[in-house]
Amino acid sequence: MNIDFSSVRQLIGAAEAENTAISAIVLRQSALDMGADEGAVLARMSHSLGVMKASVQEGLTPGLLSASGLTGDQASVLRQYVGSGKSLSGKLLGEALYASMAVMSSNACMGRIVAAPTAGSSGVIPGCFLAVAADRGMSDDVLVRGLLHAAGIGMVIAKNATIAGAVGGCQAECGSAAAMTASAIVEMMGGTPGMCGHAAAHALKSLMGLVCDPVAGLVEEPCVTRNAAASSIAIISADMALAGITSIIPIDEVIAAMYEVGQALPEALRETALGGIAATPTARRIENALFGGSV
Question: Is the CB of residue 192 less than 8 Å from the CB of residue 12?
Fold first, then answer.
């Protein structure tokens, strides 16, 4: 069966028909599309996982500071807090939060990251995957399969809607990342393909309408902490799906709705730094200090 990533329903149906996982369907189709064997595809995904791990470590460096000064060692500070045992979020979620922020901090400091699906949402998948893997003793092989699964969901979103903040707002970036992550985690935890679709729907619905409003046009504020928030939604959405809670609205309809909402957003709320948080007095003072011009 040839998969053209026209819908998540197609991925779920193929996995159910073959009694296999969505990641297996994505792996086979990716190998066909790339004209490579499955081992080569797995190797490329393994390399991406290595980059993700390195970006987390770089972003956790104490004293880290971006050129703009907007992004520092927030991830390191949060890691210390989580390690103190005082975190309301608990260990697993706390680790996902600081790891996701670490990747975004690394990005802001010109480090190497994996755009998953974009640079502005690059912290969600690694933050959640590494935290869940550490908590449940998952191997890198499981994480690589998870990346394939997430990629399949991302390809459907990109084909039927958008993953670009300039087109659909941050819902298209962090929202898509959360949906991809939640769906993949369900598979990693042994959930069914149908549960994966519900998890993706829960996550994307929860971030519907999220605007893209970077201060001074930089992918730092509120992007760093927004990745952490999206990570929490991804994990919560996976848990709800694994518990058997279904989404009344199918994921493919949610994706279509997200695109419609994105098209309805005014230009000021689609990565132009003309509205939202970027238009606040403090943000304008920051922009003026960094780049000059009127406030």
Answer: no
CA distance 265 to 103: 28
Amino acid identity, position 162: T
Phi, psi of 270, rounded to the nearest 5 degrees: -125, 70
Choose among 140, 131, 83: nearest CA to 235: 131
From the number of C-beta atoms within 10 Å of its C-beta (0-12, 13-18, 19+), residue 134 rates as middle
Name beta bridge partners: 270.
212
Condensed to tens digits (0 to 9), the pLDDT of residues 125-155 reads 999 999 999 999 999 999 999 999 999 999 9
Nearest to 255 by CA among 138, 146, 171: 171
Whether omega before 126 lies within 30 degrees of 0, making that bond cis, reads no
pTM confidence score: 0.97
Q: What angle do CA 122, 125, 128 make, to 5 degrees?
A: 130
The residue length of the chain stands at 295
**Beta-bridge mates of residue 212:** 270
Residue 33 contacts by C-beta under 8 Å, 6 or more apart in sequence? none
